[in-house]
Amino acid sequence: MLTPRQKTPDLTLPLLGGGTFDLSTDGSERGTVITFYRGLHCPICANYLSELEKRVDAFAERGVKTIAVSTDGEERTREMAQKINAEKLRFGYDLSLQKARDWGLYISTGRGKTSIGIEEPELFAEPGLFMVTPEQTLYYGSVQTMPFVRPHFSELVSALDFAIEKNYPARGEYTGELPDAAE
User: Fold this and answer.
1) Where are any strands of DSSP class E within 39-111?
2) Which residue range(s) make up the domain with 160?
3) Among candidate residues 1, 71, 79, the one with its CA nearest the CA of residue 36
4) Which stretches of the chain are assigned E, i.e. beta strand?
5) Which residue(s) pair with 67 in the sheet?
6) CATH of the domain at 38
7) Total domain count, the chain
8) How distant is the alpha carbon of residue 69 from its chain centre?
9) pLDDT tens digits, residue range 68-117?
10) Taking the model in full, what pTM does it have?
């Protein structure tokens, strides 16, 4: 389990269009929003990433970079970027299943063609959304076991405004002993 205020796993991936994404050297003022998505086969992911594409500038204005990542290879990633008409959002691809698990993502087995007629991979990662500080510590994290009910990017932008104004720390950091439960 990832812990707020603690270092996240490393993340280095090829970027669509060339180059490499390296979380440890991403160079943002306030951090990076990493959106792990299921893959090209997921119509909900396409809608979700379309919303993120619309907010890339809003995050950038707050000193935050964005990237979308999946276990898909380059070609399927390119198709997803084209599907959502991505112009600003960076896409990383070839996320290994082990690295997905290191990030706490759930892994699902493919079940054939989806409602949009695209074959699911044999194994793929379910969605997750993380805000990582420039020091590569976890600030915010959310993982799902299903493609449904994801955090809204507009709410994350608003939360960033509050966090910046109030210098609000990452929460959920306590990992010590817990008092015994009442019996």
Assistant:
1) 64-69, 90-92, 107-109
2) 28-164
3) 71
4) 12-14, 20-22, 31-36, 64-69, 90-92, 107-109, 123-125, 128-132, 138-143
5) 34, 90
6) 3.40.30.10
7) 1
8) 6
9) 999 999 999 999 999 999 999 999 999 999 999 999 999 999 999 999 99
10) 0.96
